[in-house]
Amino acid sequence: MEQLISLCKRRGFIFQGSEIYGGLAGTWDYGPLGSELKRNIQNAWWNMFITSREDMYGIDAAILMNQNVWKASGHVAGFSDPLVEDIVTQKRYRADHVLEEHNIDPKGMSIEMMSKAIADHKLKSIDGNAFGEVRTFNMMFQTNIGAIQDGTSVSYLRPETAQGMFVNFKNVVDSLHPKLPFGLGQIGKAFRNEIAPRDFVFRSREFEQMEIEYFVKEEDWQGRFADWMVAMYAWMDVVGIPRTKVHELEVAPEDLAHYSKRTMDFEFDFPFGRKELYGLAYRTNFDLNNHAAASTVPLYVVDDETSEKIVPHCIEPTFGLDRTILAVLASAYHEEGEGDDKRVVLKLKSNIAPYKVCVSPLLRNKPELVDKARALYSVMKKVFGNVTWDDNGNIGKRYRRQDEIGTPYCITVDFDTLADDTVTVRDRDTANQDRVAIADLENFLKEKFQ
Ligand code: ATP
Q1: In angstroms, how far is CA 116 from the centroid of its own chain?
Q2: From the CA of 119, how far away is ligand 1's center (Å)?
Q3: N or C: which end of the chain has fewer CB within 10 A?
Q4: What's the CA gap between 89 and 439, in Å, rounded?
Q5: Is there a single domain that holds both residue 307 and residue 384?
Q6: CA neighbor of 131 nearest in space, from 145, 150, 111
Q7: Is residue 116 situated within a structural domain?
Q8: pTM value surpassing 0.70
Q9: Whose alpha carbon is nearest atom 11 of ligand 1?
Q10: Are strands 206-216 and 409-413 parallel, antiparallel or unpaired?
């Protein structure tokens, strides 16, 4: 994990948020390469789940919403984690994490049971002090809208993107008239005041989600739930998350969220342990019913065959974008070879790699090579977009640098190029080199990228 974090910083993937001011806990900034990677993953997701399907519609809702949304959804009353304090330093911990770290399973425990377990086992903080009572801590970031601050001005930074889709359900039905089953999908920021942000971008206070609310007839929910499980695995293949590192965890009935009748967590073998990557929940028609009751606006679709008004049930596949990036990077990270031959290589799939291709002249002080390589670089950039230029150091060092950031192919323009218009194309994973005519280059690479 340390090597990965260091590579992310050194090569411009991910930086600590507000770093020059000493940082801001639980926030991360994506640098030039990280934001390319992130954008490629977002685009792949949007393409797979929205653009290429007939039954899906995109949404981009506001982060700030009417406070009544969060009252109706149950977040104001219940979106909380169990908090426990070191009685000397007042440092705060997640009580369930404290228990887990001492091999006590907190699943199904109430706040009182957690307090008792911590006291009974005489658990201590990392500073060696006793803990106080466990209490609940609401994780929503609260703010005020407008110049006058009173109860009506309260709003929250959304802790999930899901509600933005439920409250726009009627707008989509009225404007696009979709037929069941259909889904809404959204990519966007979510904010949670995590008690103890940790494990790099795995648990942060500001993060991004890619979520789907898929509306079905009640009797169809099991079949659709199974379809979405298949689709989620297909997605992991698209971004290069190996299925062998993913484990299904059926959430026990007593641990289900209040709205859910079935939830499947997809856990991933992160470098710091097996933890939740994605979730798939059957939310019944809890959300639409609640919002209809609280807003007094009926939320339903009219069945084509029976003309009946139906409040559809909902299957929710949810994908954390930052956890996806971490799983992708951890899976792609390899160290190979020994001594001088040692290399770090990010074996990213070419569809998400920050750069698809690197173009270099063999020597930077030979204008004829540089001109030829520059011309090729411009053409490649037009065709493949994310193409980089590197003329620093010797060719071996350039290959190492590109390996480390996951560039799948390096093209080198050398003296033979001037004579016969061919270039060397070097493959990141095999380190094999092919001699390819410039005229064939586009097709050669497009075939590789398929
Ligand atoms: P956890 O149990 O790890 O706190 P959760 O069950 O509360 O997660 P959900 O509410 O299901 O998470 O959120 C949906 C997805 O959002 C998660 O599967 C995860 O990928 C992502 N996610 C949730 N919390 C965070 C966070 N603090 N930082 C980064 N990603 C997160």
Answers
A1: 36
A2: 29
A3: C
A4: 68
A5: no
A6: 111
A7: no
A8: yes
A9: 279
A10: unpaired
Could you tell me if 348 and 240 are in contact, meaning their C-beta atoms sit under 8 angstroms apart?
Answer: yes
Domain span at residue 55 reads 2-67+163-329
The answer to the question of residue 250 being in a domain is: yes
Going residue by residue through the chain, which has 450 residues, state the pLDDT in tens, using 9 for 90 and above. Answer: 899 999 999 999 999 999 999 999 999 999 999 999 999 999 999 999 999 999 999 999 999 999 999 999 999 998 888 999 999 999 999 999 999 999 999 988 989 999 999 999 999 999 999 999 999 999 999 999 998 888 889 999 999 999 999 999 999 999 999 999 999 999 999 999 999 999 999 999 999 999 999 999 999 999 999 999 999 999 999 999 999 999 999 999 888 887 789 999 999 999 999 999 999 999 999 999 999 999 999 999 999 888 999 999 999 999 999 999 999 999 999 999 888 788 999 999 999 999 999 999 999 999 999 999 999 999 999 999 999 999 998 999 999 999 999 999 999 999 999 999 999 999 999 999 999 999 999 999 999 998
In this structure, the answer to whether residues 198 and 294 fall within a common structural domain is yes
The strand pair at 182-191 and 56-59 is best described as parallel
Do 325 and 359 lie in one domain? The reply is: no
Q: Of the residues 75, 209, 276, which should be mutated to test ligand 1's pocket, given the most ligand atoms within 8 Å of the CB? A: 276
Question: CATH number for the domain including 289?
Answer: 3.30.930.10
* Residue 231 and residue 277 share a domain: yes
Q: How far apart are CA 115 and CA 124, in angstroms?
A: 13
Q: Do residues 295 and 418 share a domain?
A: no
Tally of domains within the chain: 2
Identify residue 228 by its one-letter amino acid code.
Answer: W
207 lines ligand 1 (CB under 6 A): yes
